[in-house]
Every structure is written in C-alpha cells, then in structure tokens.
Design goal:
- There is one protein chain.
- This protein has two domains: 102 residues, Urease, subunit C, domain 1; 324 residues, Alpha-Beta Barrel (TIM Barrel).
- It is 36% helix and 21% strand.
- The chain contains 14 helices and 16 strands.
- The strands form two sheets. Strands 5, 6, 7, 8, 9, 10, 11, 12 and 13 form a nine-stranded parallel sheet that branches.
- β15 and β16 form a beta hairpin.
- α2 crosses α14, α4 crosses α5 and α12 packs across α13.
Length: 465
C-alpha cells in the first residue's frame, strides 16, 4: 500500500543545485517512472509544485540495518567486558532475535519516513534477518525482505534491497552460532531467496536489488564469487556490498589466517570493480587506499555509527585526494540525518589531520557543496544508479532546505549548504520529492503520525528495557 501520493509532472525551484551549477527558477519535469525528463529556467510555466527554498538532489543512504533501530539508546550502559564492538554485537543479537515480520515492517516504515524528513530519498537496506528466531525458514523465504519492501513503498522512499549472504562463523569456516542461525543460508537456499526478492522488485521503478556478503568473516571470497556467478542475470550490473575492516580484531585475524589485511585480501581474491561498495573499510593502509581508488569502488561510511561503536576513523582525505568515491549511511540508526553524517565525516578528518575544510578539493569553494555532491554521486553508485544529481535521466529526488530560516539570513546558496551541515537549525528540510512524488510537506511526512504511533506501541510491547 502506497501512501505517498501520485507522481508529479513538474516542479519549479527558486534556487536549485543542478549538475550544471546553481540555477534560478529551475523547472524540473518528470517522466511517468519518476525520473527527470528535463530542466530549464522558466519563471512563468504552470507547475505542480513551487519550492521557494534552496533545492539539492536527494542524498542516498547507502547502508541501513532497519532492525537495529529498536536498540538505539539501549546500549550505552557500561557493562564490564562489553565496552567494544563485540560486546555491542551480543546485545544487538539478543534484542533483534525476537523480531517477527510484522514488527520489522513497523520499524522500517517509521524509520524510512524519518529518513525522508531528514533529507535521505533512497536507502540501501543491508538485510540479514532472513529466518525465524531459531533459524527455521519462513514458509516464504522472502517474508522479511517483503516487509522491508512494503515499508519503503508505504513511506515513498526508493529502496535497494541487499539480501545478505551469511554462511560461516569465522575466517576458519567455523559454524554459525546462536543468533547467527537466523542469518544463515547455504548457496542453494540463498539463490532461492534472491530469486524471490528479484520477483518482488521487478517492474517497480522504486525498488532495486543488489547482493551483499555480510563480511569476510561470514563469507569466503571464493563463495562470494561463485554465488555472484551462479546468480547470473539476477545480479547483472547490480551493486555488490560487504562489511570490511571495520574492527582491528578482524584485521588481525585476517592477517593471522590469510596472510593479508582484509581489503588487500579481498582485492587479491575477487574482481573488485566500480560495482562494489565496501562498508566502513576503517582500517586500511596506503596500498589498500590505492586499490580502493583505482578500482572505482565506493567506500560506504557511517560516521555516527562508527563513532558510537568505537571503530576508528577512515582516512577519507587520502581517498578523496586519490579521486576515490564515498557515500554515507545510517547503519545502526543512532542518527538518521545526512547532514549530521557529513558533519561528523568532515570533523573526524579535522581531528586526525588538525586542519580545516579537509574534504573539499583545493580552491573548490564550499565544503557543504563538496560533501553533498560526493555523497550524492557515491551513494547513487552504491545503489546501482549511474546518474546522480539534478540532470535528465536521474531519479527525481529533490530536497528543499527552507532557506528563509533566520540562521540562513544573508547567505548565498553555497553558504546555505555550509550552514545546514555545520551550524544550521535542527532540521530545516521543508519539502522532499522522491521519485517525482511529494513525500514531505512543510517538514512533515503525512504518515508520520500513524507510523510513530504504531512504532511506539510495538516497542512498548517488546519491552526491551
């Protein structure tokens, strides 16, 4: 059931950041699938929607675990021996082991609406809660995936579903343990899941399918490659995602067992191309940085989650200096704002390098513009979209920043982006158009109230405290 309304034919933006630069009175026309058909400067034409603020392309969320939303704020109590990522993981496993399909749909619907209100217009859902809590498959193997797709349709956000392959418990092919049985699939079962998910996404211009291997701990490179090959046309040109080198324990284990660091080992064993998105890649050396940049792979960064889990700081400045690609995601959902992710991304580099305006190319001007552009390009590529930004052929994803806010007074369009990211009001996003649909009106999604109520009732019933 879609609650986000029909697609618009046209929108006029008083000020819009297109791939050709800032344009005034920019009329954007959409085709029937929600893609941009044309852009022109026109102050007189009749349009379906007038946006008077500062308009940018919607920012893709390239890494989301929707189910983790229910534990945000519940893992901050210090427990002896659990003050690292691995301790957090055990708490997450226990909390999420109980979720059923209906509860997952309730979580995702609320979460995706919240993302839209913050300025994300698409999401790559890295999904691994495939089975019942004890590991028994649902009668329909794609039951949990279908709930996520339905939640995205109800919210009006584009989704790239990434069904996760998870088939071992460690680098030495250890068996999966306890809660991991819910994630586990052998090759035959995974391909059946993929086939079912493909049928759910086909013919819907707002649904896309990709492949995800959970990590090198959970999937060997040989199994990863053989799975992609066996999937054939199901994954033709589709994006490929994997968690890699997030924690030093993973790096050390990989070196001890395989004789190489995770990113280097991945590149040695697999044909990593520009279809790939390496999530986190926190702990890389200069050689691995060169591999990332030369391959055109996207590095998927989730700065608030990486900070929350104590992962470390990815050397983004070096990647950008090598003309590499990156994007941002919400991951564990401790933050659902692209502006906050971009702020922390830049600030973490300033902490490391002890200088300012790090991620903007030399003499390129606005840091905010550089960050949003990089996140839009990298995020769209990570979702399988080759065109990004406001241009013909790209998805009709627009975010209007309400630039009449007092904190934007006297600012140029570039300066409004800088202020939005680094010192702006809590959430100045006024209107959002996703795939040509007007999904956020004056800062509010029309279904937020009902989604919030259902989410609150569900969490209270779970009693996670």
């Amino acid at each position: 059931m879609r609650t986000s309304g029909p697609r618009l034919n046209s929108v006029r933006c008083a000020t819009a950041l297109t791939v050709f630069g800032w344009k005034n009175n920019c009329v954007i026309e959409f085709d029937t699938s929600g893609r941009i058909q044309s852009l022109r400067e026109d102050s007189e034409a009749d349009v379906d929607l007038n946006l008077k603020g500062t308009v940018i392309a919607g920012i893709p969320n390239l890494h989301s675990h929707a189910h983790q939303k229910v534990i945000t704020g519940l893992t901050e109590h210090r427990i002896a021996g659990q003050d690292d990522f691995w301790g957090w993981r055990e708490l997450m496993y226990r909390a999420n082991a109980r979720l059923d399909p209906e509860q997952l749909q309730t979580i995702a619907r609320y979460l995706y609406i919240d993302m839209l209100q913050k300025g994300y217009t698409s999401v790559a859902e890295f999904h691994y809660l495939h089975h019942q809590p004890d590991g028994t498959p649902y009668a329909d193997r794609s039951e949990m995936s279908a709930q996520l797709l339905e939640a995205a349709s109800e919210a009006g956000i584009a989704i790239t579903l990434l069904p996760v392959l998870y088939c071992r418990g460690g680098f030495n092919d250890e068996p999966v343990q306890n809660a991991q049985h819910r994630f586990f699939n052998n090759l035959e079962d995974y391909l059946a899941l993929l086939e079912s998910c493909h049928s759910l996404c086909a013919q819907d211009p707002d649904r896309f399918l990709g492949f995800a291997a959970h990590s090198l701990r959970a999937v060997s490179p040989s199994v990863m490659s053989s799975t992609i090959e066996a999937a054939g046309k199901l994954l033709e040109s589709a994006p490929i995602h994997i968690h890699v080198a997030e924690q030093m324990r993973e790096v050390n284990d990989c070196v001890e067992i395989n004789g190489a660091r995770p990113v280097a080992w991945l590149y040695d064993q697999c044909d990593v191309t520009d279809r790939w998105c390496l999530i986190h890649a926190t702990h890389v050396d200069p050689h691995e940085q060169k591999l990332l940049a030369q391959s055109g792979a996207i590095v998927g960064l989730c700065p608030t989650t990486e900070a929350n889990l104590g992962d470390g700081i990815f050397p983004a400045a070096e990647l950008m200096a090598n003309n590499g690609f990156l994007g941002v995601g919400s991951d564990s959902q401790v933050c659902t704002s692209p502006a906050e992710e971009l702020r922390l991304l830049e600030y973490s580099q300033r902490f490391s390098l002890r200088r300012r305006t790090v991620l903007v190319p030399d003499d390129a001007g606005s840091n905010g513009r550089a960050l949003t552009t990089a996140a839009t390009i990298g995020g769209n590529r990570a979702r399988g979209e080759r065109l990004a930004g406001l241009q013909p052929g790209a998805r009709g994803d627009l975010v209007e920043i309400g630039s009449d806010h007092v904190e934007f007074a006297g600012r140029s369009p570039d300066q409004i982006l800088d202020t939005w990211i680094f010192s702006g009001p809590d959430n100045p996003v006024q209107n959002v158009v996703a795939g040509g649909r007007h999904v956020v009106h004056d800062g509010v999604h029309p279904s937020m109230e009902s989604a919030s109520r259902a989410y609150r009732d569900m969490v209270n019933a779970l009693d996670l405290s």
